Amino acid sequence: MPVTDITHDPDDLTITITAQFAAPVERIWQIYADPRQLERVWGPEEYPATVVDHSLTPGGTVTYYMTGPEGDRHYGYWTVLEVDEPHSFSYEDGFALEDFTPDSSLPVSRCVSTFTAHEGGTRAVYVTTFASREGLQTVLEMGVEEGSRSAIDQIDDLVA
């Protein structure tokens, strides 16, 4: 299981996930850089993702939806802020309506994904920062910890 730690800090308004993968940094980077690979790990196994638009460049956008077991769809977007290939990228992550316009009723977060060589593989650290305690609490209640663990744990099978 790649996820080694998940913490949330209500004072810093963050969720931090640490994972360890038995693959080099460049291989882990490819997963996020390739929309077809990203689909295989973005979202829990029972909510597979479909990436519609994918531009992992500063100012670029990634749009996607996850399909639930009952056929329900959940839409989201990234607005890419910074990219340091293959080491890190940051983006604004938000929930969206069906036409991919931001859903203002749900929180937006700033995410930083960092990949470093570690013990023959890759250590990934995912830090998500919210604008308010309410935003952080909303996603915690939605099951972000469990969903993130399930999604990230799928990376091992993809890189095997």
Automatic annotation (TrEMBL):
Q: Which residue ranges does the record assign to the Activator of Hsp90 ATPase homologue 1/2-like C-terminal domain?
A: 22-159
Domain of life, per UniProt, equals Bacteria
Could you tell me which Gene3D superfamilies the record lists for this protein?
3.30.530.20
Similarity comment text for this entry = Belongs to the AHA1 family.
Could you identify this protein by its name? Answer: Uncharacterized protein YndB with AHSA1/START domain
The taxonomic lineage of its organism, from the top, reads:
Bacteria, Bacillati, Actinomycetota, Actinomycetes, Micrococcales
